């Protein structure tokens, strides 16, 4: 058995793997909304910030 | 006077300014929202975007129907013992702050486990724990922070909608196969007789064959279906030569590798399908936040309050029966035809008839479905069911079931008719000639002609031109349903306009004063009296009058349905109807007027005129050169003189047109060969919009619903309409030029095919080259048109 068969099989399997990932992504609705995720990503920081201030406030009240 | 801007909603704080934590608010509602949000540490909302909010509306009792199991069941997507998932449409979603607050709903109520916004569709999908929370509570929570969801009869039937993603799947399959086949066929392009390649080429070829199978049998199936349908109805459309090309490519390639004659054309085959689907995908661009298919259901409520034995219960509108007693609250829509029992009914029929003025009704009067109650609570008795009501019956007209695209031959299909005949004759002639010269090559030539003539470039011209122009016009706030609308728009020769809400603007009206001049004290008194009244006419008159010093009135009295009177020092003023102020000689005037008398002597009146959109005259004067212009109004003739002055002389003006009349008028003109463009708004134009060749709905705010139509035009761009029609005509020109371009490629390809020298590598170069150059040409040309638009 020549090495070309192995290479060919591997390359096709890798390609099919990516293809399956694409199909899965479409099925999960990743291509339905092209805008919101781009904004949502920016909020990760904001959430942390508000939690931070929350704990700060709590500390203040504890001291008082 | 300098107004402060509300920290929450961004409106001017005109009447009262509430200050909380140094922040101005225009009303209690806005302040409450701020308080709710700051309690839950969600003030970040205001950092992301300044003044992002909406004033929360009065909703008491409005959502009682959401406690009914039967209705909840129809609205939620998923439901089990503990959790429910629901997707709600919220028109106010407009900025990143909205996304942020709606995705942090769990901070407001811990029973909410997940909320996710789809910005494009303006929806939020919420899952919540039903043990501690309910759909009704969710809706109330959203409303309390200014995000009132819109729930209409439309939601009741659809429930969970199925998203059609088949085109993306097909595109994925074709792209995947195309890429792999290209890799596998590369070696054979150049090193034809190499030893190593010679040994393995069969493996490569059969792998390519395997890759092409899903492309032919799955990705390309739409073309076969369309071609089959076309043949059945004896129409030659563009899909026939495409389907023929795909079939021939596949069979010939399979035969070649099976009989070891050559490497086949799998690269061209998969590439062809990939490019074609790409064109389709590009053209498919739709505006997910707009709907072009709305009927009365989008306007109607899901449920209405029914009174049985003095008890108020929400009832689903389809369950309303003849004889039921219904309670209609302020701002609610009357869902069925009925008779008014009691209450102060003032019905706004602008939805149904286009009439701008709300009409008063007395007990015993007939009320029609589609009217909106505008003052207080009324009780009525249903005399018909929803489907049988006057307004809803309009939808039983056949026009609403007709697909406008049927019966319209697109430019592409028109040209493909001749093209198909030409290609087939060339193929047959070349085959016959080769039968005499070298019969072994005849079949080769026959298939080669069909392969190379596959009209990929022609099929791509229209999708890319229209797709790109659709996108450009979308940026200019002219939203078209699909590409075929653009093509129809270019052929239009008659333009018909509705009046109210279409060529007039909804918001402001102009008032003109006639009568004895008012002195300074009278003017001050007038303005100050109007300040105290909430009547819409008083409000608009107040806004029109110039600023005056604020004085405190000694007495102020509002007589419902008649007018207002007030005194200041020794002066007395009466504002209202002619009868109220003591003006006897009422002439038959159709326009709305407000009469004024001071100290019991009649002074004069303010007559309200429609305020026409900016640039109306100019637009009509530009359009009159090329088109027949008609105004079809459901309103009375009050504005006739005014319109005559404004519009070019040959414009036809027709008044008192019922929805059916408008539809029939258009039908009649179409039967005489006219291609009609209807511009309208409101449900009363729905029939006319559906009947016309192109129906454009004008909208002050595109997020608010427009009736079913082919295109939605933002009201601020109304005066650009002529430019948009011109752009559609230029698009047709671009397509014709790209046809010429693709014919040139075809001639080159046919030379190779007819002479029997078509090698796979030539097809593989020629096909993508022609497709890509067409795409580049059309994109550049449409961008050029776009730049010329303002």
UniProtKB/TrEMBL annotation, chain A:
Top-level taxonomic group: Bacteria
Record's protein name: Cbb3-type cytochrome oxidase assembly protein CcoS
Organism encoding this protein: Olleya sediminilitoris
Lineage: Bacteria, Pseudomonadati, Bacteroidota, Flavobacteriia, Flavobacteriales
Gene name of the record: ccoS
From TrEMBL, chain B:
Gene3D superfamilies: 3.30.70.100, Calcium-transporting ATPase, cytoplasmic domain N, Calcium-transporting ATPase, cytoplasmic transduction domain A, HAD superfamily/HAD-like
Residue ranges constituting the Putative metal-binding domain according to the UniProt record: 6-78
UniProt-listed Pfam families: ATPase-cat_bd (PF12156), E1-E2_ATPase (PF00122), Hydrolase (PF00702)
Localization per record: Cell membrane
Main location: membrane
Alphabetic keyword roster: Cell membrane, Ion transport, Magnesium, Membrane, Metal-binding, Phosphoprotein, Translocase, Transmembrane, Transmembrane helix, Transport
InterPro entries (alphabetical): ATPase-cat-bd, ATPase_P-typ_cyto_dom_N, ATPase_P-typ_P_site, ATPase_P-typ_TM_dom_sf, ATPase_P-typ_transduc_dom_A_sf, ATPase_P-type_domA, HAD-like_sf, HAD_sf
Membrane topology category: Multi-pass membrane protein
Membrane-crossing residue ranges in chain numbering: 167-186, 206-224, 236-255, 261-282, 419-437, 443-470, 734-754, 760-785
Domain P-type ATPase A: 304-395
Superkingdom per UniProt: Bacteria
CDD domains: HMA
Similarity comment: family membership: Belongs to the cation transport ATPase (P-type) (TC 3.A.3) family. Type IB subfamily.
Protein name: Heavy metal translocating P-type ATPase metal-binding domain-containing protein
Organism for this UniProt entry: Olleya sediminilitoris
